[in-house]
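Regression test case RT-17, inverse folding.

Input:
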């Protein structure tokens, strides 16, 4: 009987050992489940900073292309008596007539500039209704029925229409270099000085400092290097040389 029990116990032990071995083998053959999905990646690249458009610089003001000498521009035009104030009439010339004669480019605005640098700005269409006189107190001065006598630029030196500037010669001698600086003349290698008879004298930029607009024997002439003792009779225009 004891032998039978010992045999049964041995068989149980063998079966238990086999079961444990089989289980370990099964666990060893099964790989642990892995995540089948990779971590979600951002499908969109991070937005890159876009460059702000470069700041655009304000366009520079157009340089003056021509200076017109009023005293000679009125040659051939007709003066009329215009009111400065009540009881004060002065012989004067139409600003519009000068603009038409000299083909002055007129924009929306114009500036009347005094010898002291004071600037009066107004609509160009209003200024064309007025007159400029070289006579009387505080002349050159704008006159006419359309001119408010309480608003005035005394001793007018320039009327600036933009690319064209009228200058008045109320002094014995005016430096062209100073005029260029005052009105913002366009830079060029040389400039043409043109008289009322269309005679033209070219002056290199380096010599502009030696040029003048001057009263000579009752005329307004150009004084420039290279013409000896002579002057440019009745100077009308100064402009950059083209060509």
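Golden output:
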């Amino acid at each position: 009987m004891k032998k039978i029990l010992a045999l049964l116990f041995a068989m149980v032990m063998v079966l238990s050992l086999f079961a444990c071995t089989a289980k370990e083998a099964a666990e060893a053959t099964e790989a642990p489940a892995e995540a089948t999905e990779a971590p979600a990646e951002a499908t969109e690249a991070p937005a890159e900073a876009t460059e702000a458009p470069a700041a655009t610089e304000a366009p520079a003001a157009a340089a003056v292309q021509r200076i017109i000498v009023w005293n000679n521009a009125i040659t051939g035009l007709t003066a009329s008596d215009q009111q400065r104030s009540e009881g004060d009439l002065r012989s004067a010339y139409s600003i519009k007539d000068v603009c038409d004669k000299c083909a002055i480019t007129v924009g929306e605005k114009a500036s009347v500039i005094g010898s002291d640098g004071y600037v009066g700005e107004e609509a160009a269409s209003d200024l064309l209704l007025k007159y400029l006189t070289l006579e009387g107190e505080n002349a050159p001065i704008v006159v006419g029925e359309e001119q408010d006598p309480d608003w005035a630029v005394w001793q007018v030196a320039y009327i600036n229409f933009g690319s064209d500037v009228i200058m008045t010669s109320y002094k014995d001698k005016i430096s062209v270099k100073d005029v260029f600086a005052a009105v913002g003349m366009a830079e060029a290698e040389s400039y043409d000085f043109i008289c009322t008879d269309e005679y033209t004298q070219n002056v290199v930029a380096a010599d502009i400092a030696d040029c003048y607009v001057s009263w000579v024997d009752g005329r307004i002439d150009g004084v420039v290097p290279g013409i000896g003792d002579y002057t440019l009779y009745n100077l009308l225009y100064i402009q950059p040389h083209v060509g």
